[in-house]
Amino acid sequence: MSIRPLHTTTDYGELKRRVKDLGLLRPQLGYYGLKTAVTFLILAAAIAIAVVATHPAVLLLDAVFLGFASTQVALLAHDIGHRQAFRGTRTNLMARFFIGNVILGISHSWWNVKHNQHHATPNHVDLDPDIQFPMVVFSVEQIASRARWMRPLIGMQAFVFPLLLPLQALNMRINSVQHLFGGKARRPLLQAFFMVCHVALYALLLAHMGSWGLALAFFAVHHATFGLYNSSVFASNHKGMPVIAANSPRDFLREQVVTARNLHGHPLTDFWYGGLNYQIEHHLFPTMARNNLSRAQGVVRAFCAERGIPYHATGLIEAYRETFSHLHQVSASLRSRRGALA
Q1: Is the pLDDT at 109 greater than 70, yes or no?
Q2: Within its chain, how far is the Cα of 45 from the centroid?
């Protein structure tokens, strides 16, 4: 169950009223119908190339394309998990089963539980699952909770963290299986069945390539691309932003705004990030359809200026510079023999 932060409704209620009056919280069924069709056409094209191509170079390039397509599907699954696409409970659940378990091979309930916790407690030092890594820390306080033998690695975390990003796709699958066998998953047998269907279909695709060496290379490139693209979308949104210490939550509006970073909007950026470059607006209004986030940004930014709330938006390169600089800074005490042995 998600842990909800403290809410002060006065400011947030006024902001939500302004956004709602502009119609920005209304369902966008037409948009998501078109978006779903385009996304699955991209996925179908990647699969078709894998079926008909025979040259190794073409297949490996297609593995990169399939990684891109998989992330686009994952971004659509993200929106569905937030009920942006479908508001009906049954329709939403069916879509989550199909896209999450069958198409992506990931437990939809594992992702929803983890992601809802992140939304409830963004950048909370002990509660946000998105900043809990055994070999990475996002605040000096986290160092004490990490294994001593990990600390020399943490001292180099600004260089280690990028190497972890391509592993994210495999990590999601491992966590999904652990979730299903952990006793807390909803409909674990049905979810497992659909995930087995995904594995079977994927194995058929790999077997069609004839050579197991080529099949393994395709698998590795596909998952590395999927992991890198997927995790890079999320890494730039909160990493390096203020961390909330234990037992010191802020009110909902301020907590969601100050812990998130926006990337400057552009049609290409909006497409590549699935609208998550408007991370502040997304965290304030998780059910808002992604095509309305750019319109909401002007309202939210102006409101934050009225209330004196820090609102951070920057470019893509600067966002990653801030992220890695933060990682390097918080691990500074470990980059000495004395710090590593402390």
Answers
A1: yes
A2: 24
